[in-house]
Amino acid sequence: MDKREGHGLYKYKNGTTYEGEWLDGKRHGNGVFQYKDGSHYDGEFVNEYRHGHGIYRNKDGSQYDGEWHKGEMHGMGTLTKSNRDKYEGEFMRGYKHGNGMVTYHDGNSFVGVWEKGRRCGKGTFMLKAREDDGQNDAFDLEDVVLPDVLKMSVFGY
Predict the structure, then answer these.
(1) Which residues, 6 or more positions from 111, have their beta carbon under 8 angstroms from its beta carbon?
(2) 23, 47, 49, 62: which could form a disulfide with 71 (CB 3.0–4.6 Å)?
(3) Can you give the residue ranges of every domain in the chain?
(4) pLDDT tens readout for residues 22-76
């Protein structure tokens, strides 16, 4: 059986395409994987997995730009939602995990620690300056109880 090697374009039966490097019949090296729904990944592959640095753009406009490990967001990265909320920080096995910062589309931000996609421990919430005072207000979230509505998924905050 012939195995794909080098650079090439492959069109899958389901409508997705891959253009990039192949090694021993597997996506391996730099490439672009275009999904049928319009989402796509542009970056490094190792043995078929997204692995190394890459950018995944979802059809809804959300995007992850960062490190991947065996197909999962892992390492440092930036996750931007379609509403422009942006998380910059550490990921582990597909979850926000470690130190990070969320900048919300309204200009407010939160800096703290995440564990398996959820904020944990102490953090600092920064309120965007109001036009009337020109100052940022910050407060420690140690004693603030967040409602369940703020507990979100991997692509949430």
Answers:
(1) 100, 101, 123, 124, 126
(2) 49
(3) 1-59, 83-147
(4) 999 999 999 999 999 999 999 999 999 999 999 999 999 999 999 999 999 999 9
Q: How far, in Å, CA of 46 to CA of 94, rounded?
A: 17
CA 65, CA 8: separation in Å to the nearest integer? 24
In whole angstroms, give the CA distance from residue 45 to residue 47.
Answer: 7
Radius of gyration of the chain (CA): 19
Q: At 90, which amino acid appears? A: E
Instruction: State in Å, rounded, how far the first CA of the chain is from the last one.
Output: 47
| Model pTM score | 0.80
CB 40 within 8 A of CB 20: no
Q: What is the DSSP letter of 35?
A: -
Looking at residue 62, the DSSP 8-state letter turns out to be: -
